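Q: what sequence does this backbone want?
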């Protein structure tokens, strides 16, 4: 399987970080960055990562099945994740989730017909102190109000980039 030179360089860097008998530690970061380039985790990708990390394809497949940020199906250009775990739930996370489903007309792990936006209900994203929290790709939105979520989703659906949407505060990681 061939990847871009940038991704190959990243893989090389990850693999160099770990001793020969601990290459398996690179499985998760390699999968995360590879899926950004390939749009989804295919069987071919699983086998390639397994080969490079010295584990079996089944072990890589088990990792993919465990972590919700790893996807076997292509996501939308903007993958919107709404947390409904306890801290977010207490301050409106479930209402935000229902609002997003209703507004986009799609549900959990579904993608809009134009491929622009996909939606996922997620467990705690580690942003409990800033609940309710929403994540779009790698960017967090904290203390999200129903009005802000409306603006965010309207903007994404209309073809805007997240940073072009006014009055919705993004916290980059
Ligand atoms: S419960 Fe929502 S970020 Fe932790």
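A:
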């Amino acid at each position: 399987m061939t990847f871009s030179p940038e991704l190959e360089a990243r893989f090389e860097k990850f693999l160099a970080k770990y001793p020969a008998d601990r290459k398996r530690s690179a499985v998760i970061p390699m999968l995360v960055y590879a899926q950004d380039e390939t749009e989804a985790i295919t069987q071919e990708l699983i086998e390639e990562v397994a080969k490079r990390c010295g584990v079996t394809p089944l072990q890589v497949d088990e990792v993919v099945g465990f972590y919700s940020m790893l996807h076997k199906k292509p996501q939308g250009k903007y993958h919107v994740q709404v947390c409904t775990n306890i801290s977010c739930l207490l301050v409106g996370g479930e209402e935000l989730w229902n609002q997003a489903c209703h507004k986009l007309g799609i549900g959990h792990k579904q993608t809009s017909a134009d491929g622009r936006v996909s939606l996922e209900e997620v467990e705690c994203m580690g942003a409990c102190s800033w609940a309710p929290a929403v994540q779009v790709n790698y960017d967090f939105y904290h203390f999200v109000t129903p009005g802000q979520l409306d603006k965010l989703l309207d903007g994404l659906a209309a073809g805007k980039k997240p940073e072009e949407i006014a009055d919705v505060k993004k916290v980059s990681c």
